[in-house]
Amino acid sequence: MSSPNDTQLAATDTKTGLSAVLAQNAGSFVGLILPVAIILALTIWPTITGKDITRESIFTIMLSIALASSLNILLGYTGYVSFGHVVFFGLGGYVGFYLMAVQGWSLWLAMPMGGLAAGLLAFLLGKAILRLRGGYFALATIGVNEAMRAFINNFKPFGGPVGMTLNFQVYKDYGGAARALSLAFYILAALTLLIVIISYLVRTSKFGLGLLAIREDEDAAEVMGVVAPSAKTWAYVLSAILPGIIGVLFFFKNGSIEPVPAFRLNFSIEMIVMVMLGGQGTVLGPIIGGVGYQSLRGFLLTSPLFKNIQLAVAGALLLVIVLFVPAGLVGWLRNRFPALRRVLQ
Amino acid sequence: MILQLEGVSKNFGGLRALSDVTFDLPEGQILGLIGPNGAGKTTLFNSISGVYTPTEGRVIFRGQDVTRNKPYEMAKLGMARTHQIVRPLNELTVRENVIAGSCFGREGHGLKAAGKIADEVLEFVGLAPRSDQLAGSLNVGQKKRLEMARALAARPYLLLLDEVLAGLNPSEIGHMVDIVRSIRDQGVTIIMIEHVMKAVMSVSDRLLVLDYGSQIAEGTPHDVANDPKVIEAYLGDPDLALRLMRDETRA
Ligand SMILES: Nc1ncnc2c1ncn2[C@@H]1O[C@H](COP(=O)(O)OP(=O)(O)O)[C@@H](O)[C@H]1O
Ligand SMILES: [Mg+2]
After folding, report:
1. Which of A123, A222, B5, B175 is such that its CA lies 20 to 30 A from the CA of B11?
2. Can you give the pTM of this predicted structure?
3. How many domains does chain B have?
4. Is residue B154 assigned to a domain?
5. Residue B101 maps to a domain
6. What is the residue-averaged pLDDT of chain A?
7. Interface membership of A2 toward B (CB under 8 Å)
8. Where are the alpha helices (DSSP H) in A206-284?
9. Tens of pLDDT along B104-143?
10. Residue B59 lies in a domain
11. Chain B within 8 Å of A11 (Cβ-Cβ)?
12. CA-based torsion, A195, A197, A200, A205: positive or negative
């Protein structure tokens, strides 16, 4: 064997040419094709079929994809299980709804404010509860969601337990109720595309590598120089902003907001199931998971036998995934067919 | 002096794992850290690298008091370490592991520059053919080399090696010792915890012996091997004491 010194010198000269670096990057962009194609296909599908009912069910699927992709930044990339992620959807929704219904703001301004409120909450929470590891963090996030619901329930400016309602006249500014519904769909499509691209950029960035290192072994990551407390906090903030914005959009379309639907814990659990089903830690996983889970749920809802136990089915599904396919569908495919790794990111 | 310890002690509840450890480490040397199991060697590494905060005493790294620093602060200042029980980032590839070492270490490179360094370092430790394999799929010897590569990619001033030879076969040991020597030749200061006496004797400029958390001897390999206190410390393990003597006289 040649001495280590020689090998190192040789390596500096030859092995790491520009072409190698370029090849690496070209390969990584391939990973964005499938996710973007799926979102675009879902977006134009209702126009092709021309049915409002299709648009409504695709709205639900897009909502799932966007929320699951957001959660994935924390759950999949960073390895922290947030059981109460719906708190960002609910709080953002409430803040935006209040601005629209009481202060007369437009949807366009209310949405960023909802995102800001959610991001701010995540930032403050990050400092407090991201120090907790594993199950303790998960428990704390449930506590936060329940506490927030109890608070809003008693908060008079937000209407307390009754919540708030949008005056029907508001939709006139958007060309009438029908146009507003259609507008909401396209805004959601754009936001979903945005989060998928953000998810991809995080996954392939230095910041993302730090998150993955934290997920794999937080202590080792810190020894390597990953500033875990701040990286985790930013991951949490990033995973909270979009749910906050989408909360505003969702309740705008809904026309009213109440504490119970805004902070429904079931919704949080469904998000986790979707991420796990598709494959945590991948860009494509939450998309596949969102489509898959909503299709399954649609089927269960039409079956009288399963109608009332859909959450139990979701729980059982989660159990099966965790026990038998912890990497989810995309992760399983990546492990099975390493050649596909560039496409399935 | 690259590193100075002044009366460093570490207690775990009632257990005094380190007691008043004091030494100066000049730049460019290899310091061998030896002592029976449970002597506090790994605890000393943890206390230097910010994983533990010493109960008493001060740690000074390149002239700066770092006693209360976090591990990631030590990494940025130019300290890197390997773990006795390997800690690969299992679901990342070998290359990604090493890129992370370079990205977040002293030089804080971006992904591209880090990729270049990673390829160099992987070639250097002989893991280049395994670059795209998941780190979790390596065998123990390869994982030890990965730990080493990850630490090296940070381009540290001081490298802490915790039993990198343990569990390796004789030819792997030879290769690893070569690697350690050439790292030192590139100007990196090294503290090396080791049980393979022959190797540590031959590679170290100085040795420091810990027993029950106290520093019982310090000096050249020759002086230390002939120090009655050291032989006594290993008497709990007469085999080891014998081996220590035999290996030293042969070296
Ligand atoms: N985190 C810890 N908590 C409690 N005791 C510890 C901890 N780490 C090490 N010890 C104890 O400190 C002593 C020294 O351990 P260690 O530094 O690992 O020894 P060595 O590396 O020399 O074999 C042992 O008695 C060990 O049990
Ligand atoms: Mg040890």
Report:
1. A222
2. 0.89
3. 1
4. yes
5. yes
6. 88
7. no
8. 206-216, 218-224, 228-254, 259-262, 265-278
9. 999 999 999 999 999 999 999 999 999 999 999 999 889 9
10. no
11. yes
12. negative
